[in-house]
Amino acid sequence: MTALQADHTLDCSGLLCPLPVIKTSRAIKEVQVGQVLKLIATDPGAPPDMAAWARQTGHELLDSHTEDGKFVFFFRRAK
Amino acid sequence: MTKSDPNGRKRLALIASKGTLDWAYPPFILASAAAAMDWEVGMFFTFYGLTLLLKENHPAVSPLGNPAMPMKMPFGPESFQKISWPIPTAMMAVPGFNALATSLMKQTFKNKGVASIPELRDLCCECGVDLIACQMTMDVFGFKKDDFIPTAKVAGAASFLEYAAEAEVQLFV
Predict the structure, then answer these.
(1) For B143-165, how does the pLDDT look when each residue is reduced to its tens digit (9 = 90+)?
(2) Single pTM value for the model
(3) Per the domain annotation, does B3 fall within a domain?
(4) Are the beta carbons of B169 and B12 closer than 8 angstroms?
(5) Is CB count within 10 Å lower at the N or C end of chain B?
(6) What domain range includes position A45?
(7) Nearest to A18 among B10, B29, B112 (CB)
(8) Domain count for chain B
(9) Shortest CA gap A43–chain B (Å)
(10) How far apart are CA A21 and CA B28, in angstroms?
(11) CATH at B26
């Protein structure tokens, strides 16, 4: 897999629900439509929550995986 | 308040009826998360929940009457922090114990990376969440609109029910 290139990165390490969702909803507005936001989180609830956030907002979850014990997500801004 | 666009954003209608620190969390967490998902959110603050709208509000928690509340320490080694202290009920009635429990809970939440109640309330205001004070409770407890944060609105049961009737999610906390 070719590594995804992020236009903006948000680090929510150490933050619990609902802060990663709230900060992501703000950060996605920092990139243009079609651009990619990278999120790093340690909240164990983040994988299901960020997927739900993407479904509800319509922003595309391009990839999610763990890296050095942290959760990494890539979202493409849809609108 | 009816939806201007029935096919528009989802709506959450939530009643916050309790004003203690522990019970302040669920409504503000759910409201801010819903707003982050672009939902329209209305929070109706009634009875003791009304105090969460006060400009100066410092919600506290009491272990008395909260038999399932774990009493844990927010400091020391991990094994120490995991201990759930068996506090005799009589101890919980000792003056100052509520203040102790409140500060321990605040510190634990902060250490774990959870936002504080004032932070969550500010986030809700910034995200455009409607904060609605229950008119009847205001009259009963003697609160004026000026006692509340400026973004708070005032309405009654019929207004909330009309709002909730068009909400996909309705919650009572």
Answers:
(1) 999 999 999 999 999 999 999 99
(2) 0.91
(3) no
(4) yes
(5) N
(6) 8-76
(7) B29
(8) 1
(9) 9
(10) 13
(11) 3.40.1260.10
Query: What residues of chain B have any CB closer than 8 angstroms to a CB in chain A?
Result: 10, 29-30, 32-33, 35-39, 112-115, 120, 123, 127
Nearest CA among A38, A40, A50 for reference residue A9: A38
Q: Would the CA dihedral through A16, A22, A25, A26 be positive or negative?
A: negative
Residue A40 forms contact with B (CB below 8 Å) = no
Phi-psi label, residue B74: left if phi above 0, alpha if psi -120 to 50, beta otherwise? alpha
- Domain presence at residue A1: no
Contact (CB, 8 A) for A37 and A27: yes
**How many structural domains compose chain A?**
1
What does the pLDDT average to over B110-117? 93
We report the CATH number of the domain holding residue A65 as: 3.30.110.40
Are residues B61 and B21 in contact, defined by beta-carbon separation less than 8 angstroms?
yes
The answer to whether the CB atoms of B115 and A19 lie below 8 A apart is yes
CB contact under 8 A, B37 and A52: yes
pLDDT band for position A61 (50/70/90)? very high
B114 and A16 within 8 Å at the Cβ level: the answer is yes
Whole-angstrom Cα distance, residue B90 to residue B30?
Answer: 34
Assembly ipTM: 0.87
- Does residue A3 fall inside a structural domain? no
- Residue B83, in any domain of the structure: no
Percent residues over pLDDT 90 in chain B: 76
User: Which positions of A are annotated as active-site residues?
Assistant: 17
Closest residue of chain B to A13, computed from CA coordinates? B113
Q: How far apart are CA A1 and CA A10, in angstroms?
A: 22
For B136, phi and psi rounded to 5 degrees?
-60, -45
